[in-house]
Design brief:
This protein is an alpha/beta fold. It is built from five helices and nine strands, in the order H-E-H-E-H-E-E-E-H-E-E-E-H-E. The two termini are 22 Å apart. The model has no long low-confidence stretch (mean pLDDT 92).
Amino acid sequence: MLMRKEDIIRQCQKQNSTVLSFPERGPWGSNAYRGNCSGYVHAFLIWKYKVQKLAELFAGSGTGYDVSQDMGISYVGADLNPNPVRPGILCVDATQDEVPDDFYDADFLFQHPPYGLEIGIPYAGNMYEDPTGKLSGSDLGQMPWDIFIKTLNYITMKYYAAMAPGARMGILMGDVRRNGHFYSMLNDIVKPGEVEQVISQLPTT
């Protein structure tokens, strides 16, 4: 256990609004993993929506797994990394593989997708080995924006269709400017179902 559940909830209760501003990212996962988000985002969603089982796409550094352990809930993650960093994360190519069976009974599906090629954060061959180059073809972080968005929307709809009745999906995303161009995942991403809430997050140290 990295933090006591009571201490985590106390921090979440201070942020019960549409703007999250946590003073630090928390002890979960690894901040050396590029693109890693604050574990308090996971914790807030778990607390806010009374999550009993969290499923996570693009599980990366294991932050979601660690938070779920401390919050005392079930967890299953999926990531392209052939050697996942936590035992609760499955090696899955979301661009091609079927939705894992363990995802079907989750009551919350969280994803913090990579950004497209323009953002310059590749994972396959960078954060983990890709000796044959095959994984790079499925790495969203190495796809030009139009292909990236098309692929991400396909993945989102595939996993949305597998969600249990009444389950929620949360997507952490941001807008980016590069070389005079504006890239907005919020504008371009597919939005299945009913949008229940938009929550902003201020930068975390």
